[in-house]
Amino acid sequence: MNAITMVIGSICILMIAYRLYGTFMAVKVLKLDDSKKTPAHELEDGKDYVPTNRWVTFGHHFAAIAAAGPLVGPILAAQFGYLPGLLWLLIGAVIGGAVHDAVVLFASMRQRGESLAEVAKKELGPVAGFCTGLAMLFIITITMAGLSMVVLHALEHNPWGTFAVGITIPIAMGVGLYHRKTGNLKGATIVGFILIMVAVFCGPYIQDTVLGEWLTLDVKTLSIILPIYAFFAAALPVWLLLAPRDYLSSFMKIGVFVALIAGVFLVNPTLQMPALTDFIHGGGPVLNGPVWPFISITIACGAISGFHAFVGSGTTPKMLDRWSDIKPVGFGAMLVECVVGIMALVAATALHPGDYFAINSTPEVFKTLGMETVNLSKLSQEIGLDLEGRTGGAVTLAVGMTYIFTDISWFDKLASFFFQFVIMFEALFILTAIDSGTRVARYLIQDFGGAFYKPLKRVDWLPGNIFASALACLVWGYLLFSGDIGSVWALFGVSNQLMASIGLIIGATVILKVADKRRYMLTCLIPLAYLYVTVNYAGYWMIKNVYLNTAASGYNVLNAVLSIIMLVLGIVIMITAVRNWIKTWNSPALQLNRKTA
């Protein structure tokens, strides 16, 4: 298959889905009404609750949800061939991810922008609320530390990347102050974007200067700096740092993938990876499990991701200016992220299979595959870096994007520059999720702590904000600095999709109460049925074949125990929800409302 066929077909499907299914969700299912005040207006405090332009909110939301998932997940899943990843991205995003993000955002806004744990408590009861909160806190801690580890290796001894990423902080604060004072979004956007691009292209020239020496940092130093930055991102008013930084970063993110799309149209590379590989039954060098359930666990962001529930019930519901903004921000941003995932899949599958597996497996394992590299030596020479055995997906994306552009005659002179640019771009992608995720962790800590000390629950209480932000950063910062998170990182795939299942459970509960027709629950129940079975089977498979298998390299009893705890939390929430659905379904008041609607 040619890449251009995949890209055009996918974009057309997503545009039609947004126009038809997105409108159906907004008008018929959620019944969005702009005559009602949003939490941002009702509780406006100039810090967390701030009515914000829909495109600024879109930029923040997209930047926050589009972390490493839509970049790395499709690349790792390319082991199975291009077809499983493409189908899951399109079907998962339209039927599952976009619906999940929209209903979670709506459910949170109905409860004054509170966290999903608080929403679960009010919609399903205290037991479900506690289990949801515990699961969310567990997942967000692992996510922040795990994503930060990816950034560490991208910025380690990389003054160019460190400068380009770090300079976005004062630029964003300047844009936030200017926009706050003048209300001139267009002017702030133009100036901010130009400054960021200047910073990116100035990066190579500071490497051999005194400033470059100062910014040449090791892993341990970066492990301290990142939590400190996240603390300020979580504690400062949202309009000063977090929102403008994510908004400006989204231009760069979307711009890079627009450039990649343009490259696909210019070059029209052939997808060299077959539709299906021999590893669909398991035993692959990148992912050991079979295509199902691991295609849906490996590709989360880009299709459906529980991490989005943190943003959709954290910062975003406190910023929406109108209820109708849920459609472009919640439903639309998910579909744009799907495009990001598809372009990452194109970048990976455009590589020759031998080159792909040489990058994504250790040299020892690659020798056992009976494959030969084709273009890897040439690419390594042009980029100036040995590319073999650089597992994890990030390098594959940069190499794949670089490879597509090498068919342009004059591009070989820019290959090294472009490769480093993409590596930095990936780091920026991840950092925008870290600052938003830490702010969400702050909200969760305040929710839990508020049960023991009521003032802590108030988001406008400065000491509480500082304490919760510091505690959140301390916890995941410790895991980052010590490296202990590596022992539980394998849990993230399962726990993340379990979180998405919880989001769909709560969404179905809310729809049953507000929609005119009860069958509209199927918008959540259909993706929930697939995802819940998938995540539980994946958890069972990992426990049986990896965590409790003494012959497996991933043998770890602690991981097995933690997996069991997470799956049990999901079962408790599901049982509670089903009982609630039956009670609500048979409620005379609900039936009367249906007749009068």
Q: How is this structure best summarized?
A:
It contains 26 helices and no strands.
Q: What does this entry look like structurally?
A:
This protein has 597 residues and is an all-alpha fold. The chain has one domain: Amino acid/polyamine transporter I (Up-down Bundle), CATH 1.20.1740. Helices cover 71% and strands 0% of the residues. The chain contains 26 helices and no strands. It has helices at residues 3-29, 39-42, 54-65, 69-77, 82-110, 116-124, 126-155, 159-166, 168-182, 185-202, 210-214, 219-235, 242-267, 291-298, 307-312, 326-349, 353-360, 363-367, 376-383, 394-405, 415-449, 462-482, 491-514, 522-547, 557-585, 588-596. It is globular, with a radius of gyration of 23 Å. 54% of the residues are buried. Pfam families: CstA. This is Carbon starvation protein CstA. One of its GO terms (biological process) is cellular response to starvation. Keywords: Cell membrane, Membrane, Transmembrane, Transmembrane helix, Transport. It is found in: Cell membrane.
Q: What topology emerges from the helices and strands here?
A:
Elements: H1 3-29, H2 39-42, H3 54-65, H4 69-77, H5 82-110, H6 116-124, H7 126-155, H8 159-166, H9 168-182, H10 185-202, H11 210-214, H12 219-235, H13 242-267, H14 291-298, H15 307-312, H16 326-349, H17 353-360, H18 363-367, H19 376-383, H20 394-405, H21 415-449, H22 462-482, H23 491-514, H24 522-547, H25 557-585, H26 588-596
